[in-house]
Each structure stands twice: as structure tokens, then as C-alpha cells.
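Hi there,

I know you've been waiting on this one. I reran it after we fixed the sequence typo, so this is the corrected version. Both the input and the resulting structure follow.
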Amino acid sequence: MEVSNILTEKDGVKMTREEISRIFRNPPIIDTARLYLRKMNKSDSADMYEYSCREDVTRYLLWSPHPNEAYTAKYLSYTQSRYRAGDFYDWAVVVRETDKMIGTCGFTRLNIESNSAEIGYVLNPDFWGYGFAPEAVRAVMRFGFNELRLNRIEAKYMVGNERSVRVMEKVGMTREGINREAIHVKGRYVSVGVCSILRSEYYGR
């Protein structure tokens, strides 16, 4: 099917909140060459705590390091209730060869009215530098445009987090600008950058 036909067929056809909730009550498995993305489980607590306890992981995130594995297990129990409600849009990122959960990737926010979403991701530093983050983000982007019929996907980053920006650029996003001292987090004001990709750009590549 040609690009023009794809855009004509689905352009402007927004999903309803009920349709999206139904999808994410039991999020589908997304396969990539080396990974698969699946619903987070309570049994992921050891793998998640392995990276969520680290300062170098949370330095540019809104949350602080998990103090212990029990805290991580409690968080994962909470996510199960959010899945059941259909308002949690995140996947566990799992290495296919070892079945190890190495991070998360998904949508931190869905704007139904504007047919847009914000994507977020975090990865165990032991697996940085292997291209796993772009691989996971591409898979979630593909799901967003193909299955959720989104018009725009954006990603935000705290200024200074160039590693995250490189991921955004590798998947085809464009830097849009900086919102100066846009948020107050961990006792300081932080400037936030925005990158994005539009549906027309995604299918036109």
C-alpha cells in the first residue's frame, strides 16, 4: 500500500477513550528483533530494582531511586490496578535471548482530544550503548501510529540529558525547543526540551 493511501485511510480517525482503555487493560506483546515488550508483572521486581535504585538512572527523571526492592514490588502491584483500569500505557522491555526485563517504554500521557501522546523510556545502564532504547522506542512509536492512529508523538527531556536526546533523534524525532525552568523537581527548577514526530513524517520516511 502506498504512503498516500495509508494516510487517506486512517488520517483523522481518532480512537475513543474507551477503545484505548480496552487495549491497555491487557496490553499486547510487541516484538522487535532482539526484544519483546509486554505488560509489567509483579515478578519483575528484582530486575526493575536493579536499575531503579541507581542515581545515574534517576538523575534526569521525576522520581528518585527506589529505596529497596519491597518499594519496587509495591509499585508494580500498583501498576496492576492501573492496567485493570485501562489508564496505564507502559510496557516492560525484555531481552528475548535471556528473558531479562531491562527497562520500560511506553506512553506517559495520551491526549485523546488532540490525538497525540508523550513517550517515555528508562533502561538499565548495564544495557546502555547496545541500541536497545531506540529499538524499544521505535516499536512503541509504530504501535502508536499504526494501532492507536495517533497524529503526533512527542518526548520530553531535562536539559543536560543528551543521551536521551540522541535516542529521540535516532528514531526520527525533531527538536522543537526548550521550555526554560519549566518544572520544579528535586528542589530545583529544570528546563525541559521537547522533540516530536508527526504521523505524516513517520509514514513519509
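Quick highlight: The first helix runs from residue 3 to 10.

Best,
R. S.
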